[in-house]
Amino acid sequence: MTNRLSRSTHPGLPLHRERMIQFGGGNFMRAFVDWQLQQMNNQGLFNGSAVIVQPIAQSVGRVAEHMAEQDNLYTVLLNGIMDNETVNSREIISSVSRVINPYMDYEAYLALAENDDLEFITSNTTEAGIAYLPGDRADSTPPVSFPGKLTALLYRRFELGKKGFVIIPCELIDRNGEKLQEIVERYAADWSLGGEFLQWLKSENTFCCSLVDRIVPGYPHEQAAALEAELGYTDLVMATAEPFLFWVIEGPESLTERLPLAKAGLNVVMTPDMTAYRERKVHLLNGPHTAMVPLGLLAGLATVEDVMNDGTFSRFVKQLIEEELIPMLDLPAEELLSYAGAVQERFRNPFIRHELTSISLNSISKFKTRLLPVMLRYQKERGRLPERITLAFAALLLSYRGDRIARQDSAEVLAVFDQAWSEPSSFVNTILGDTSLWGQDLTLLPGMGAAITAHLERLEREDSRTALQELVG
Ligand SMILES: NC(=O)c1ccc[n+]([C@@H]2O[C@H](COP(=O)([O-])OP(=O)(O)OC[C@H]3O[C@@H](n4cnc5c(N)ncnc54)[C@H](O)[C@@H]3O)[C@@H](O)[C@H]2O)c1
Ligand SMILES: O=P(O)(O)OC[C@@H](O)[C@@H](O)[C@H](O)[C@H](O)CO
C-alpha cells in the first residue's frame, strides 16, 4: 500500500498565484487545460495556476474531495505514438491551486472577483452545461446553471470596478464562446443588472470560441494497481490521455502573448475564424466515433482500439471517412486525407483504452451534429443515401431499444424512444418523423424510411459484423 500523492510525498513542487478560473475539473480539463498550464509553468512562461469551480452540486467521481486530499496534485499519463516515437510519460501536475464548491462556500466563490491576478476563465461543463435555464435566479447561492453562476461572478467583478476576463469555453458545442456570452447577457437582462453592466460585459470581457482536441480516457481503472506500484504513490484522480493535443482559439492576436501556449511549443492556434478546423474535427474524428459505437457494441466490441484492430470494422471506418465524409467537406482533400490518416492512427493507439460506452453518452444529439449534416448533404448532392452512415444510423436506432446494449441519454430522449419502440410496426416512421430529435422530419428524405427499415431487419436477422461485411467487402 503506497502513500497518497501530496505535497508531503513530493515536497518542493512550485505553488503559483491563481491566474485562471476554471469551471469543471473533469478528466478532460485536468489533462488538457491544466496540463498545458503546467507546460507553460515548466518553462517559466505563465507562472500561474487555475482555481477550479465545481459547476454542479455533486462532485463527479469525487474529484473535489480527492483533489483536496492530494493537495490538488495529480498525475497525467500520456500514452501513444507521436512523431513515430512511443510516448509513455508521467507528470505530476501542480498547476491547480484548489477546488471551490460554490454550493458549500458561495462567498469564497464570489471572492474570486476581488483577485486582480485572475484574468482568464475556462470551462468544460459538458455539452449540457452551456444552457439557459429559465427561472435561474440571481439570489440563489449559487445560481443553478453554469452561465448563471458566471453572470453572478462577473456582476460582482463589475461592482468592484475591476477589469474583465478573457473567457475561453472548451465545451464541444459550435460557437461555444458566443453561446455563453448570449446566455450571460440574457441573465443580465432577466435579473435587471442594468445597462452599465451590459456595457462593461461587452467592452471589458472577451468571449472566445474554441475547439479542443485530445482523447482523454481518464482514470485508468484496469491498470491502477500496477501504476500505483510503478509511481510509488496512490493517486485517485490520475488521468490518462493521448500525447496529441490541438486547441484552436478564436481570439485577438494579443492573446498569443498573454497566454503563451504556442510559445511553450503547444499545438495551439489562435485564429480569427475557426470554422474549417471545427468541421474537420467534428466530422472526421467525432463522426466516426459516433458511427462505430452502436455497430461495435452490437458486435460485442468494447473499445475504439478493438474496432480498429478488426479488419471489417477498420475497413468500415476508412471507407466511411474517405468515401462519405471527406467528399462532403469543403477543405482541400489532401489536407483532409492527411488529418484523417492521423485520426485513424490515434484511434489505433495501443496504450489507451477508449471505451465505446464512454463515447456513447448522448449519442442521439451527437449523431445530429456529427453525422446527420453530412448525410443530408450527401443525399442532396448524389441523389442517394450514404450507405455506411445509414447503416450506423440504423444500428444507433436499434441500440436505443435498450434491450441489447445499455443506453445513456437524457430522460426526454429515452422516453421518445420507449414510446416509439412500443409500436414496432410504426417505429421507423415515428422516430424519423420526430423533429425534436433531428430538427427536421427525416421521413421526407427520399429513400430514408425504406433504407432504415431494411437495415433494421438485417441487424435483427444477422449480427452487425455480418451486415458490415456485406457492405465493406
Ligand atoms: N474525454 C475526452 O476525450 C474529451 C475530449 C474532448 C472533449 N471532451 C469533452 O469534455 C466533456 C467532459 O469530458 P470529461 O472526460 O472531462 O468528463 P468528466 O465526467 O470527467 O467531467 C465532466 C465535467 O462536467 C461537469 N458537468 C457534468 N454535467 C454538467 C452539467 N449538466 N452542467 C454543468 N457541468 C456539468 C462535471 O462537474 C465535470 O466537471 C465531454 O462532454 C466532452 O464534450 C472530452
Ligand atoms: O467527449 P464526447 O462524449 O463529447 O465525445 C466522445 C469522443 O468523440 C470525444 O471525446 C473525442 O475523443 C474528443 O473529442 C477528441 O478530442
From TrEMBL:
Domain of life: Bacteria
Occurrences of domain Mannitol dehydrogenase N-terminal (ranges): 19-261
Stretches assigned to the Mannitol dehydrogenase C-terminal domain: 273-459
Keywords on record: NAD, Oxidoreductase
Record has Lipid metabolism as a keyword: no
Lineage: Bacteria, Bacillati, Bacillota, Bacilli, Bacillales
The UniProt record lists the keyword Translocase: no
Catalyzed reaction equations: D-mannitol 1-phosphate + NAD(+) = beta-D-fructose 6-phosphate + NADH + H(+)
Protein name, per record: Tagaturonate reductase
Listed Pfam families: Mannitol_dh, Mannitol_dh_C
